[in-house]
Amino acid sequence: MPAIVLVGAQWGDEGKGKATDLLGSRVDAVVKFNGGNNAGHTIVIGSEKYALHLLPSGILTPGCVPIIGSGVVIDLSVLFEELDALTARGVDVSRLLVSASAHVIPSYNRSLDQVTERFMGSRRIGTTGRGIGPTYADKMARVGIRVQDIFDEAVLREKVSGALNFKNQVLVKVYNRRAVDVEQVVQELLSYAERLRPMVADTSLVLSKLLDAGRTVVLEAGQATLLDVDHGTYPFVTSSNATAGGACTGSGIPPTRVSSVIAIVKAYTTRVGEGPFPTELLDEWGERLRSVGAEYGTTTGRPRRCGWFDAVIARYASRINGVTDFVLTKLDVLTGLEEIPVCVAYDVDGVRHDEMPMTQVEFAKAKPIYQVFPGWDEDISKARTLADLPTNARAYIRGLEELTNSPISAIGVGPGREETIAVRDLLR
Ligand code: GDP
Ligand code: IMO
Ligand code: MG
User: Fold this and answer.
1) Could you identify the atom of ligand 2 that is nearest to the CA of residue 224?
2) Is 185 in a helix, a strand, or coil?
């Protein structure tokens, strides 16, 4: 069985965690390939609710090997906090593997993220303040600290000192902050070394061997297509590649081994942080989606911005990721609406756009052109097959498939693992 990529189709929080968990016991390894603890995945198993940030969702599946790939940025304090919290709840976390080439988020990058956002004022991105952007910037500027550096004190000191040489100038002279002490950072990072060592591996090699042995590997994205640094709504994006291409670079698995790409898409749209959002509802309808859908950030607790389903975005996600299957989530949240508008195209300065506009200036001006679907009143949370759904709910699903040119292979009708309609096998 080859590798399967799982990505978010919109601006995040589509329910990727639940979807990965759903694939569950049939998966041998789950790799997180991008991002860090900016992610927040809520997974509900029976009466238990888990909020994961840095760890791959596969950590909750007995027997599955959870892997943090080289494309991830790791806040080591958060890693151990999360592992301890899961252990206290009886979850076996002993199989976790961490790439020796993943970057770590030193505490100074957390401070820089927050201070930069404040400095930007109205031009801020609305980041999660976890140090993600500065750490990826360091990676590209080749002044980052990697997991493997922590096991050689002299190398670590040289790298931290090299990075702080420049950063302290910025902190003191631009932001009027205190300089960060090299030794304090080195000692903090060294304090994790012993506990980290047994988890560290050449994860690309481990994955290659698993695939050679016919095992099933899921490559799970944090964030989503429109938050991708190349293909998203730049600059209002995260700093990593959250699309299917990033799954290969962030895990060390070649594209030739990927057999399918599953994209998770919400039955409406949400966004956290700043940036354009054509179907955003600033009225009571947006408030209704937020309250019924419980749309508050898993990571920062911020209210999520809400709007109608945007088929232009979903089509774009299908194209950019090469989507083979959509998983449509939170259909239950739409129950009770008389009519459900879906954005089918944009009007930009009087010109109709069926595809994502080429520039962000155009995208920022995009006005949604809606097609209205009739709603349904029946409780759908107990539906387990398409036939259990009201006719109008089925028509809504079929309409989205037509508008996005992609099949919907599973449908979420509630947060619980079992609250799902399986249309076709995602691991076929
Ligand atoms: P992720 O970041 O993509 O993993 O998504 P989040 O966990 O941040 O947000 C999705 C939220 O929706 C979580 O609270 C899930 O428990 C919940 N959820 C997932 N699927 C469904 C669904 O089909 N219906 C409802 N009502 N909630 C869902
Ligand atoms: P999951 O994996 C939703 C958003 C932030 C901000 C922008 C940049 O749960 O879907 P960053 O801290 O990454 O530099 O912030 O990206 N963002 C997310 N929004 N879900 C996420 O993750 C997100 N991770 C980052 O709100 O707008
Ligand atoms: Mg989330």
Assistant:
1) 10
2) helix
